[in-house]
Fold these 2 entries.
Entry 1:
Amino acid sequence: MASVLSGSMAARPVPGSYGLPVLGALRDRLDYFYFQGQDKYFESRVERHGSTVVRINVPPGPLMAKDPRVVALLDAKSFPVLFDVDKVEKRDVFTGTYVPSASLTGGYRVCAYLDPSEPTHAAVKQLLFSLLLSRKDAVVPTFRSNFSSHFAAAESQLANAGKSDFNKLNDATSFDFICEAYFGVRPSATELGSGGSGRAAKWLFLQLAPLVTLGLPMFIEEPLLHTFHLPSILVSGDYKALYKYFSTAASEALDMAEGLGLSREEACHNLLFATVFNSYGGFKKLFPGILADVSKAGEKLHRRLAAEIRAAVAEAGGEVTVAALEKMELTSSVVWEALRLDPPVKFQYGRAKDDLEIESHDALFAVSKGEMLFGYQPCATKDARVFGATAGEFVGDRFVGDEGRKLLQYVYWSNGRETETPSVGNKQCPGKNLVVLVGRLFLVELFLRYDTFTAEVGKDPLGAKVTLTGVTKATSGPGT
Ligand code: HEM
């Protein structure tokens, strides 16, 4: 996708309109949540203006967001401007055009809201890199112990009730898994008890409510979720309970933080956010998303995955090792394909640091300093100009082989290309490698245990909702 436009064509104004002040944004919010829905909202504006770079309003709008007007980048070519921190400022844009109250994070602006030019950004991100490195050997065994209990529980639900709510079990499992992997202490075995994931979900909901619909009538949701911030006092008890767990369980990480010049308190709020919002919030969507795609792909893919996984594990002497995971090309491709087709974090924002020229496949656009740039990631990662006629479909082996791997540069789920590396100087997700690793581990656990499975796939406010309806126990290989 080398540039053929810059240098040969004058930049033109970005098409699109914001409509009347306030009323335009309110009307668009209703389109987004109720009349058109998320994908159609963006696709219809691309069609209307014949351009994948277009001016639109984004939710939530009035009264929560000061200014809902953005320049939307809705193709694979223009989108990566959002990764370039020389071109865009990332201060306070994590959730977009509104910022949840800092009282939800102990009064601190945590890492995800910091621009790399703010010194605390590098210190916190370094802390997370050091934490992940120090715990790297704990990930595989902790994942396996937590998720083998998960599937054992699912099997007994299937035996008793004929179905098992995957999301519900996953919430409890993912929360215990990630906390134990990072800090060596299972939250459900502490004072926090089994209620940790529920408390976490409530706290997450308060921050994301402006962007979700629960399927209630709009006259209830509009004033309740999309117009005013819900008061943080509703979850202050939950946050305190979570904080208490972190301040004790994360004591070694907090020692590391002091060595990096952070106070224990600021570090603890940051560790809580990175674990509960970034990691647990991500896994709440990641695992149901992978399971939904693999379920819909059917038994043929299941058999291929099972064969690849069992062969690699057998070759590693029956152990699930990181080296064995690296050999699983199809399994890795399935994880990337799920992340491409339905990226768990769909919105990215950045404010133009200067007057910019932004290139789509077809044109060059002029954007002024200070304007808010916005990317709706599914439009970029399902761009048919890159992924061809099957761009909107799940193709499990899309990233297999040399040709397949070349497409990884267009997988953007981590706020960067899959071929790039997160650093203290950029805003790419520090959990990038961990996420792909646990995605593969999830498939490994599934297909060491089962030859195939069936499920019903629906939707919940955050993503896919999966109910397991049947499993066929493994008949061969290291899983038997
Ligand atoms: C940033 C996605 C898991 C920690 C981000 C961003 C995205 C993302 C899109 C950039 C947001 C923006 O600035 O626009 C995801 C997804 C995950 C996941 C989809 C799981 C499925 C994790 C994990 C960690 C983590 C496991 C644990 C360390 C962070 C942090 C940032 C971040 C701290 C802010 C980075 C910075 O300020 O430079 N993530 N993430 N995330 N993520 Fe992740």
Entry 2:
Amino acid sequence: MDTSPDTSFVCPIIIEDDRTGLDTETIRRALRDNLLYIQGKLPELASKNDLYMALAYTIRDRLLQRWLTTQQTYLKKDVRTVCYLSAEFLVGPHLANNLINLGIYEQVQKAVSESGLKLEELIAQEEEPGLGNGGLGRLAACYLDSLSTLEIPAIGYGIRYEFGIFDQEIHDGWQVEITDKWLQYGNPWEIARPESSVEVKFGGYTESYTDENGNYRSRWIPDYVVKGIPYDTPILGYRVNTANTMRLWKSEACESFDFGRFNRGDYYGAVDNKVHSENISKVLYPNDEPIQGKELRLEQQYFFVSCSLQDLIRIHLYENPSLDNFHQKWSVQLNDTHPSVGVAELMRLLIDVHHFDWDKAWFITQNTFAYTNHTLLPEALEKWPLSIFGRLFPRLMEIIYEINYRFLDKIRIIYPHDDGKMSRLSIIDESGEKYVRMAHLACVGSQAINGVAALHTELLKKDVLRDFYELFPEKFSNKTNGVTPRRWMVSSNPRLTFAITEKIGENWIKHLEDLRGLENYVDDGGFRDSWRRIKYDIKADLANYIDKKVGIKVDPSTLFDVQVKRIHEYKRQHLNVLHIVTLYHRLKNNPNLDITPRTFIFGGKAAPGYFMAKLIIKLINSVAEVIDNDPTIGGRLKVVFLPDYNVTFGQRVYPAADLSEQISTAGKEASGTGNMKFSMNGSLTIGTLDGANIEIREEVGAENFFLFGLTTEEVYAKKAAGYNPQEYYYHNEELRAVLDLIGSGFFSRGDSSLFRPLVDNLIYNDPYMLLADYQSYIDCQEGVGWAYKDQEHWSRLAILNVARMGKFSSDRSIREYCEEIWRIQPVKIELPDYIQANA
Ligand code: OAK
């Protein structure tokens, strides 16, 4: 079958107004048409989901000209492009954001309501693609939004997992994981491009041969070959014509059956091969920090990286006579080490397939890649047993050995006789069982290396990547994370957006630093009143949602104290619980105590195999149950664990928070991005000097931030001096009472063994130093309670927080990447005359 473009087809395409028009009447007509002709439903039989699908197709139609024009412009102008390689893209639902970015929310709302429907209900139908675990995947999605908004030529490459992050249910207080079937009713936002499929080799062996010019070469004879099929989703920028592509790869067997095997009678072998090939893109690994040793995970990484690099080379050769200038046309960003096998794969493609010599190939490779690190946890540094790596990718193994050999040869000259240095820097860990160290491969093969917040980058330089920093300091820089205000303010908080825009105009949506203009209104009592009313209404909405979801009634006038993020010991959700139990204990001892009534809201998933994280979820739910059923508390404390925290729920909860909990042990959270989303929506932060908290505090002012806890230096010093949590346990009476209460079975229907592992771990081990930070946290929380009582004062602080969040737009981060790492310029996309411009 011929799937290449047929240039003899000159018939001009007639643009149907129903597919491009942006006025209410056209949209209404298009919606009806799509319901019938795409979704295949008569209006009287259409479900809400059918109507959502019809609307989604209607909006996709309006993206298509922008998308195709963008691709055509890039090809014609032969632009320099950034390619963001990420094993995760946690994009969240598309519909509302596309309406906002196209500038047609109101028209569509009208068109939909004239058809007797509610737009918000249709938006709520969308099943979000949960193709990520948390921070790293969501950051990739914010960056795609900013890249398009800033009109930067870009492609996001990843994996089209059939099953994304599991849905979380809570049964008797415990997390239960349910398969995420996000594709079951179809995905209207993607277009499959089977004509651009590529093949990826696995297993087998290598052999050397001499080519026709007498050159000595290697070739890889694989055991099996898997096909990658690209699925493309347009990512439209805000009020621009740029629509970049997110291209996700699905794996399939090369033939539907291996007929050779089939004919030899090995039916099951043939089926196994097909099943294995399809399994590669089947499911997202649900760990938010790397997992060691899972072979399928390594296959996933190589699969999407090889597909993506082959795709780039194909696109490149479409416009360029050779790959000599590849690094001048592409900058490939490695989102953590998951795609770092790309360094070896690009070498392989250049040398084996395109016959470059080593030095030239290495020059191109090193000048193509850049690497972002996203974690400081030592256990999170990805490494793969040589035995697995070499078996799956024999040719890459040879190339990695050669890269390492040449690298260490240089090191030997710089640090003669320093064997320690050599073994610390080596790409191969030879201290015991041999491993490939993926971060080392990324550092050696990249022209730039960055951390994601100022402290994080400093700690990388001082600690995790110290030897590399000493070797090439010029490669290192910091790029503090940011988040997109289009999703995290405009889309999720329309009421606040309206109030801000009424005062300072709408420029801030693309230039977040303009929020500073709000400082002029901080003394305006009327503005503060309406600010408070808005917050109250949003909290009331969340209260209704909580009641519907988990049947707990909460009072919107209480302080909403929120911690939503992955459940992990270093994020210290259990420190938050210690505070709750402290307040509860105080109220039991002194029922008339004057405290600020609070609603504690938690959300987050635990990795399915992470026992302690799951026990923390059980603890939150157990404490919630006891407090809720205690009439003496009289609603002054409420604890809610909302199941299945995801992007959609984040959009509901950030705007409703009064207090944002950012309480990780100093030196553990690389950056955090939830901290930014809360603060942009007018909540105040209680936090440690960790990750981007430090920069948030610098921006909003120390007086507008509730700071507690040890600094990173103090954490290190205490650890070095032999930290002993028991000292805190024995010397702090209230802390002891709280831990004893949890340990006694009070919250577990008398079962004193249930929370024992958690309590004992704190008293005897406490790797994340909760006990050392406990008193400082409790005192700080008391300050929060008092501050909240003065609502006028609180509103001032909240307004100032929003006004000073300009730095944390992902537009700022992306500008920095463009200027300092990628060296990429914006490219304006001009639509053909017959396309109706944005409203
Ligand atoms: C996930 C897998 C491997 C390594 C890191 C991660 C990850 O999600 N890290 C998180 O990245 C975010 C984006 O940079 C940061 O804000 C978080 O602090 C970090 O934990």
